[in-house]
Design goal:
One of its GO terms (molecular function) is ATP hydrolysis activity. The chain is α/β, with parallel strands linked by helices. The protein has helices at about 45-55, 80-85, 100, 110-115, 125-140, 145-150, 160-170, 190-205, 215-225, 240-245, 250-260, 320-325, 325-335, and strands at about 5-15, 20-30, 35-40, 60-70, 75, 90-95, 175-180, 210-215, 225-230, 235-240, 305, 310. It has 2 domains: about 5-90 and about 175-335, Rossmann fold, CATH 3.40.50.300; about 105-175, no CATH class. It binds adenosine-5'-triphosphate (ATP) and nickel (II) ion (NI).
Length: about 325
C-alpha cells in the first residue's frame, strides 16, 4: 500500500503570554491509502492538536516544527492559499458535534452542499450533480428517505441521523484522507454503537484513508487497522490494532486496556503531567509500575521491531531480545 500521509518529528508549542508551552513532541507516523489509523490516549494528550496540524487549523499562537507530507508533498509549511487545494478534496474532516456544527436555521442538504466549493450557488448542472451525490451518500449511509432529509432542518432529525449528516459533510468532496475527531464523545451508548457501525461500513465501502481520533479504545479496536497510542504529547506505541489490543507492550497502553469495561475496569492511578511542568526522563515514569531508575532520568526513544510495531519504552530497548522471545516479553510484564 502507498503512503498517503507521512508525519516526521512534528513539534507543536503554544505561546501563552511570555510562556512557550510545548505540547506535541517528535510525533512521527504514517497513514497508508485505504487504512484506518486510530489515535487514542486520555484527554489533553494532544490528539486533536495533531489532527489540526494536518488540517492547517491550529490557532495563531501555535508554533510548529517538523514535516508533514501528503502524497510526498510537504504541506505543513504551505501557505493558506496553497493549502486550500488540499482541503476538502484531498484531506477533509468530519465536524465534531451536531449541536455546534449544524446551523439550526438551514436545511441539511444545503449544509452538506456547502462543503463542496461553491455549494448550491454553482451553475445549474453542477448543482444537480451535487444534489445527486448527496442523495447517493445519504442512502449509502442508510439515511432513509434521503430526498426528504435534504429538506429537513437539524431539529427534525434524530441524533443518529444528525451524526450521519456530519459524516456526509466530511465525505461529500470525496477526500483521499478523512480526519474524524472524537465521533463518539458526545453520544450515548446506543448511538455510539450506531456511529461505530457507520464508520466501519464507510471504511469497507469508501476508498479513503482515515485518521480516527478518540479516547474510546473500544471503538478504535472495532474500526481501525492500526492504533497509535499518545501520552502527554508523545506517541508511545503504534502497531496493528489486534496486536495492540491483545499484546500491548507499552505499560501505558496496557493500563488503558486494563481500564476497558470488558477487561475489568481497572482504572489507572495518577494523572497525566501538565505540559509546563514536565520532569526529566520518561513522561509516563511517575505512573509506571515497571519504572526503572534510568526511566526517571532519560527519555526513551521509539524502538521498532522491524514489523511495524514501535514502542517508546526502555523495556523494549533491546528490541531484538524483547520482541523475538515471547517468554522474555511475558516475563517483563508478569514479573
Ligand atoms: N490554542 C491553544 N492554546 C494553548 N493550549 C492549547 C491550545 N489548544 C490546545 N491546547 C492544549 O494542548 C493540549 C492538547 O490538547 P488536545 O485538544 O490536542 O487534546 P486531546 O488529546 O484532543 O484531548 P480530548 O480527548 O479531551 O479531546 C491540551 O493541554 C490543551 O490545553
Ligand atoms: Ni480532542
Amino acid at each position: 500500500m502507498e503512503k498517503l500521509l507521512e508525519i516526521k518529528n512534528l513539534d507543536v508549542a503554544f505561546l501563552m503570554g511570555n510562556e512557550h508551552v510545548p505540547v506535541l513532541n517528535q510525533i512521527s507516523f504514517d497513514i497508508y491509502e485505504n487504512e484506518v489509523l486510530a489515535i487514542v490516549g486520555e484527554t489533553g494528550c494532544g490528539k486533536s492538536v495533531t489532527g489540526s496540524a494536518i488540517l492547517h487549523l491550529l490557532p495563531e499562537n501555535a508554533v510548529t516544527d517538523g514535516e508533514i507530507y501528503y502524497k510526498n508533498q510537504e504541506i505543513l509549511k504551505l501557505s493558506e492559499e496553497k493549502f486550500r487545494k488540499f482541503r476538502g478534496r484531498e484531506i477533509a474532516s468530519v465536524p465534531q458535534s451536531p449541536s455546534t456544527s449544524l446551523d439550526p436555521m438551514m436545511v441539511v442538504g444545503e449544509q452538506v452542499a456547502e462543503c463542496v466549493t461553491g455549494g448550491y450557488r454553482q451553475k445549474k448542472a453542477d448543482r444537480e450533480n451535487i444534489q445527486t451525490r448527496i442523495w447517493d451518500i445519504f442512502s449509502h449511509l442508510k439515511l432513509p428517505g434521503e430526498r426528504k432529509i435534504c429538506h429537513a432542518y437539524p431539529c427534525q432529525l434524530s441524533g443518529g441521523m444528525s451524526q450521519r449528516v456530519l459524516i456526509s459533510m466530511g465525505v461529500i468532496a470525496e477526500p483521499r484522507l478523512l480526519i474524524v475527531d472524537e465521533p463518539t464523545k458526545a453520544v450515548d451508548w446506543i448511538l455510539r454503537k450506531e456511529v461505530v457501525n457507520v464508520l466501519r461500513q464507510m471504511k469497507d465501502e469508501m476508498e479513503c484513508g482515515m485518521m480516527l481520533i478518540t479516547h474510546d479504545f473500544g471503538a478504535a479496536s472495532q474500526i481501525a487497522d492500526r492504533i497509535g497510542v499518545m501520552y502527554c504529547g508523545q506517541m508511545v506505541e503504534i502497531g496493528k490494532a489486534d496486536e495492540i489490543l491483545n499484546k500491548p507492550k507499552h505499560p501505558y497502553t496496557k493500563g488503558l486496556i486494563d481500564a476497558l469495561p470488558s477487561r475489568g475496569f481497572h482504572v489507572m492511578e495518577g494523572f497525566m503531567p501538565s505540559f509546563s511542568e514536565l520532569s526529566a526522563g520518561c513522561r509516563f515514569a511517575p505512573r509506571c509500575s515497571r519504572c526503572l531508575e534510568r526511566c526517571r532520568r532519560h527519555i526513551p526513544e521509539m524502538y521498532e521491531d522491524g514489523n511495524g510495531r514501535q514502542v517508546r519504552c526502555f523495556l523494549f530497548e533491546e528490541s531484538g531480545v524483547a520482541y523475538r522471545s515471547p517468554c522474555i516479553e511475558e516475563a517483563v510484564f508478569n514479573a
